[in-house]
Design brief:
Elements: E1 4-5, E2 9-10, H1 18-22, E3 28-32, E4 37-42, E5 45-51, H2 57-67, E6 71-76, H3 87-105, E7 112-116, H4 123-136, E8 140-144, H5 155-166, E9 171-174, H6 189-208, H7 211-214, E10 221-223, H8 234-243, H9 245-248, E11 264-266, H10 272-282, E12 287-288, H11 304-307, H12 313-328
Parallel strand pairs: 1-6, 2-6, 6-7, 7-8, 8-9, 9-10, 10-11, 11-12
Antiparallel strand pairs: 3-4, 4-5
Helix pairs in contact: 3-4, 4-5
Length: 330
């Protein structure tokens, strides 16, 4: 069974000036700092420093070999989603980055599997870009966990997810666009607190908002970062659903814990005890190895927590690759 990493990101080595290509301002650009280092810029503001591991397939493959990873899903960096722009602009930007992603993964098509991005604010355009990208070689799609104040139970987003289910395209949900405030701007709290909370909220939105009840069980959908804090607080959600069913039930037909078979999560939780909790809540078939490569808050070596968690051999094999192979339709 191959070892499969379902959570990694890319940044192209460069892209067209988006202000010229699609209009507007404050688009992401790449400032080259050295032969192996660059900085993603948002207008004149530094957003994130990156290394050539983001675009250099040879380096990516060498580090996969070091970690014992056979196959890696390569997804967009969420800053490129462009959900706050017009649907037309976001569609053009999605096409640009999706085509650039193929330049990276084409260097090892059996090992690097590209996931595309779509203009999720426009369901029709999102479906068109998904179909175009799948036809061109992408094998799945990464989406953000919300579009402004529209969560994943929004009718338009549900329409897109129904299309993914109908066309057998796996979906990876990644948190993005976290709220900024003085309390959250310290200690990388947006990453430490907001990301897990955002993902937790999105899982609940799909459950309590009735999205899972409206979408075919054929949908293959997974959430990043262990599904945020959902697994730890499933009992709290069930208790609220039972005790205040008049408020909490929403459009759901069953209590929250009864939906865990409808989605998967990755293993990016960094502690063996947290991973064992995930397996207890999600079942051994609901957790897949992820690393968040190549970013500093990711796991290296990839899969290390799974290998050291003391799980039975068959569960370890499932988490390292079997579950992902099923998710990806390999």
């Amino acid at each position: 069974m191959p070892v499969i990493d379902v959570h990694s990101h890319y940044v192209p080595a460069g892209w067209p000036d988006l202000a010229v290509a699609v209009g507007g301002s404050d688009w992401p650009s790449l400032r080259i700092d050295s032969a192996t280092e660059a900085t993603i810029m948002l207008g004149e503001r530094e957003f994130r420093r990156v290394t050539d591991a983001c675009w250099n397939a040879d380096r990516r493959l060498a580090e996969m070999d070091e970690d014992g990873v056979d196959i890696q899903v390569v997804s967009p960096t969420p800053v490129f989603f462009s959900y706050a722009r017009s649907g037309g602009q976001a569609a053009e930007v999605s096409a640009i980055f999706n085509d650039l992603a193929l330049d990276i993964t084409a260097q090892a098509p059996d090992r690097l599997l590209p996931f595309c991005q779509v203009p999720l604010q426009d369901p029709d355009a999102a479906c068109r870009e998904l179909d175009r990208s799948i036809a061109n070689g992408h094998v799945g799609v990464e989406i953000g966990n919300h579009v402004g104040d529209r969560d994943l139970d929004d009718d338009g987003i549900v329409t897109f997810l129904q299309h993914c289910a109908a066309t057998s395209v796996p979906v990876f949900v990644h948190p993005w666009d976290m709220t900024s405030s003085p309390r959250l701007d310290r200690w990388m709290s947006q990453w430490l607190v907001s990301m897990p909370a955002e993902t937790h909220l999105s899982v609940l939105a799909m459950i309590l908002g009735g999205a899972f009840d409206r979408i075919s069980a054929d949908l293959r959908i997974a959430f990043a970062h262990g599904g945020g804090s959902f697994a730890f607080w499933t009992g709290r959600a069930d208790n609220a659903w039972q005790q205040r069913n008049d408020i909490v039930r929403g459009r759901s037909e069953r209590r929250p814990s009864e939906y865990v078979d409808r989605f998967s999560v990755d293993s990016v939780v960094f502690e063996a005890s947290a991973l064992r909790l995930l397996v207890d809540v999600m079942g051994e078939g609901g957790v897949m190895m992820g690393s968040d490569y190549p970013y500093p808050l990711g796991e290296r070596p990839a899969g290390n927590v799974i290998r050291q968690a003391g799980l039975p051999d068959d569960q370890t094999t499932s988490l390292l690759g079997g579950n992902a192979a099923r998710f990806l339709g390999l």
